[in-house]
Design a protein that fits this description.
By secondary structure, the chain is of the alpha+beta class. 24% of the residues lie in helices and 24% in strands. The chain has a 4-stranded mixed β-sheet, with no helix packed on it. Strands 1-3-2 form a 3-stranded antiparallel β-sheet. Helix 5 links the parallel strand 6 (118-124) and strand 7. It starts with a helix and ends in a 10-residue tail after the last helix.
Length: 193
């Protein structure tokens, strides 16, 4: 990863990494990431796998489940400020969809002096989301931002344009993603053409 960054003619202003699986308490791994991205102010979002879904609670303590998903949003210090003074990190651990957003959404607001705020939302939608719970929670979160300046970046595990998938964009997740993009007047960074 560091080699890729060094090969670029200029460092990216914003980096979004998905499937990081970096939980709080994984200090060594998080330190390695912070060192690799030392020119960035970074925000992590991760969650544990829910292995209790559909099962009866056990009276015995269960070992911690491994991390799932995970999103990292990094903003270059030339924009964020050396200590992140131009960034506001959003905590979405409370509320009806909080269990679905952990590891699925990481959100920071970049507010430069004299400029409109820019919402930077890193998203990761797990591929095995047959009921589309994570997808719908992330869509609701992004749509609820009420801002004209949103960059929703990451891995949506959905095709939007005809060439995004070899077999076309006919899967249910693809259709939901297309509707989300259309309804919220969004567009891919490269445009829709």
């Amino acid at each position: 990863f560091q080699t890729t960054l060094q090969s670029l003619s200029a460092p990216p202003s914003v980096i979004v990494l998905t499937e990081t699986k970096l939980m709080q308490g994984q200090d060594t791994k998080r330190k390695q990431v912070r060192q690799a991205l030392s020119d960035y102010v970074i925000h992590f979002s991760c969650a544990r796998q829910d292995k209790t879904q559909g099962t009866k609670p056990s009276p015995q303590p269960t070992p911690p489940t491994p991390p799932r998903a995970g999103v990292l949003v990094g903003v270059h210090k030339s924009l964020a400020g050396q200590e992140g003074e131009h960034l506001r990190v959003h905590d979405h651990t409370n509320g009806a969809t909080s269990g679905l957003l952990g590891g699925t959404v990481a959100h920071v607001t970049l507010q430069l002096p004299g400029c409109a705020a820019l919402e930077l939302v890193g998203c990761y939608i797990p591929p095995k989301d047959e009921a589309h719970r994570y997808r719908k929670a992330a869509y609701a979160y992004v749509a609820g931002l009420q801002s004209p300046n949103v960059l929703a970046l990451g891995d949506w595990n959905a095709g939007l344009l005809e060439g995004d998938r070899p077999a076309g964009t006919g899967a249910a997740g693809d259709r939901l993603h297309a509707a989300f993009v259309s309804t919220n007047s969004l567009a891919p960074l490269g445009g829709l053409a």
